[in-house]
Specification:
CATH architecture of the domain at 14-223: 4-Layer Sandwich
Strand content: 15-25%
Number of strands: 12
CATH class of the domain at 14-223: Alpha Beta
Low-confidence stretches: 1-5
Mean pLDDT: 96
Strand order of the largest sheet: 1-2-3-4-5-6-7
Shape: globular
Distance between the termini: 13 Å
Structural class: alpha/beta
Order of helices and strands: EEEEHEHEHHEEEEEHEHHHH
Length: 309
């Protein structure tokens, strides 16, 4: 049965071995609700990176893991609190769930907030299941002899972003610090913080990047993220000087090459954050998110945000 947000032409999720024993589960086109996950197969168990937005999609992901290995799913890392990365946590009941300390708080506080934003989605059963092992800056996991470094990089996309970096393989699971082919979204984090975070990622020397949304890519995508975010900052500076709000500034600008990225309405939310920062709000500071989202929908001609989950 389909619903209002379905796209019958959307491709099926794909599973790609991005390094020996390491897999990326990619849900294209990577727009709202279509996130990426992944997993590492060890001798005695599996380390999973993120889950999916709905029960159906998370179950499909677990089935794909099971198509590769029947070893226990022992560890689950949440790159941040958003439901498209955490709603399926409950389907890994034997896993130790790891996230940033702020991620745990945000998962609990946000609950099922996404259901109000995407009313047509068939969520299924999504009991809220937060991380119960948390850290503040860095935590190192080991998949057999392979070291996986969890690094806090927020506030950026959110206040609680974590990436999984594998130095030996030059492989990076970037979470939603990277949108490949889609518009970055930082209204719940920081524009300036996102730029700083992505610049730090550039210094890692990654050769393969699994973004939070969009296809697996190389490090060239990082500069694209920075260029867009600086574009947003420039618009915000002009908006403050001209007395414009985020919606007016978004409507009056030329997106140029960034118009090719999907979910362009995110510009409005990003401008809400950038204008607030231009006026002195600290990265990750409190912002009226509901007003920002309302302006995004207005920018989108009053249509609901396109969600294919």
């Amino acid at each position: 049965m389909t619903h209002a947000h379905d796209d019958e032409h959307a491709p099926e999720p794909t599973l790609r071995e991005v390094s020996e024993g390491v897999f990326a589960y990619v849900q294209l086109d990577g727009s709202w609700g279509l996130n990426n996950t992944g997993f590492f197969v060890g001798r005695d168990g599996v380390v999973v990176i993120d889950t999916c937005f709905t029960e159906r999609r998370s179950r499909a992901f677990v089935e794909r893991v099971r198509s590769v290995t029947d070893r226990p799913l022992r560890t689950l890392v949440n790159t941040h609190h958003h439901g498209d990365h955490t709603h399926g946590n409950w389907l890994l009941p034997e896993a130790t769930i790891i996230g940033h300390e702020l991620c745990r708080i945000a998962v609990i506080e946000s609950g099922h907030a996404a259901s109000g934003l995407f009313p047509g989605v068939e969520w299924g059963n999504i009991p809220i299941t937060p991380p119960f092992v948390t850290f503040s800056e860095r935590l190192q996991l080991h998949v057999d002899e392979l070291a996986v470094e969890l690094q806090f990089q927020g506030p950026a996309h959110t206040t609680n972003d974590v990436v999984a970096w594998v130095p030996e393989r030059r492989l990076l699971f970037a979470g939603d610090l990277v949108f490949n082919g889609g518009t970055p979204f930082v209204v719940m984090g920081s524009v300036s913080g996102s730029i700083a975070a992505v610049q730090r990622l550039q210094t890692l020397g990654a050769e393969t990047i699994v973004p939070g949304h969009g296809d697996v890519c190389g490090p060239e995508v990082l500069q694209d993220q920075i260029s867009y975010l600086r574009f947003v900052q420039s618009l915000a500076k002009h908006a403050v000087a001209s007395g414009m709000g985020a919606l007016e500034a978004a409507r009056s600008c030329d997106l140029g090459r960034f118009a090719e990225w999907h979910d362009t309405e995110r510009l409005v939310g990003n401008l809400h954050r950038a204008i607030a920062e231009e006026r002195g709000l600290e990265p990750g500071g409190d912002l009226d998110i509901l007003t920002a989202i309302g302006d995004m929908i207005t920018f989108n001609d009053g249509k609901p945000l396109r969600c294919l989950a």
